[in-house]
Amino acid sequence: MNITARTKICMVIGDPVEHSLSPQMHNAGYAALGIDDQYVYVACHVDVKKIDDFIIGVRAMRIHGISCTIPHKIAVMPLLDEVESIAKKIGAVNTIVNEKGKLIGYNTDWLGVLNPLEQRTTLKGKTVALIGAGGAARAAAFAVVSKDAKLTVYNRTAEKAEKLAKEFTGEAFSLSEIENVKSADIIINTTPIGLDETNETLIPKKYITDKHVIFDAVYGISETQLIKDAKKQGAQIIPGIEMLFHQGFAQFILFTGYEAPAEKMVASLRGV
Question: Is 1 among the domain residues?
């Protein structure tokens, strides 16, 4: 790392954020391209109640790029100068670029969902059971509906599920109806359940079959309980780290203008 007074700062914000692997991945990309004197990537734990103060700090310090994770993807939107069209449709931002003092919001999460799914299956006509109704869920809903999948949304708060389902022409269910996921082709968890590496999961193993594709947006040091259960049931799995990679590659371009050195960025997290 060759940091100087001219180096631009990029960072991931979240609450929590200590689990994030984004700093290793992005900094490996900068080093691979020999631009680690131009960019450095760090993490910052930001309470969602302090997001207004944080954005004031971004402007004052001229922070160059921000990656937003839970719970900031929606909360940060009203504080930006501009939000690009796809992020507006999704209703959530996971990427902010400081363009000469103008803060512009983007969303690359939907690519983090779409690309791994399309590497494994065709989405058209498939039924997707989406667990959660937050920022990551909105990106996932946009991704699958853009490829003509049928959307079903499950959430603890039924009203939020109904709102999201209505926006993306899907059906809404409460978590008390989770057994209905048995009839889905694809199950995507976008809630933070599993982030703390407990054995907690919102989808009982008995409802998972070998015909399912199970995508857990959560990632950590070890596999989530949902991924462990899906493996035991013979389902095809997509761990959350794949979402991290694909949204991160698109984010890398927005931050630097350079194509992401994908192999080097992936290699930096092997064994983590």
Answer: no
H or E, element range at 40: strand 39-45
Give a yes or no: residue 3 inside a domain: no
pLDDT tens, residue by residue, 72-98: 999 999 999 999 999 999 999 999 999
Q: Is residue 166 included in any domain, yes or no? A: yes
Counting the structural domains of the chain, the total is 2
- Tell how strand 82-83 and strand 95-99 pair up: unpaired
pLDDT at residue 169, rounded to an integer: 95
Q: Which two tokens stand for residue 28?
A: 């490996």
Catalytic annotation on 73?
yes
Three-class SS state of 42: strand
133 and 18 within one domain:
no
| Distant-in-sequence contacts of 35-39, Cβ < 8 A, 24+ apart | 35/256, 35/258, 36/1, 36/2, 36/3, 37/2, 37/3, 37/4, 37/6, 37/7, 38/6, 38/7, 38/8, 38/256, 39/7, 39/8, 39/10, 39/64, 39/255, 39/256
The mean pLDDT of 133-148, rounded to a whole number, is 96
Range of the domain at 44: 8-107+244-267
Give the model's pLDDT for residue 272: 56
pTM for the complete prediction? Answer: 0.93
Set 8, 73, 211, 231: catalytic member: 73
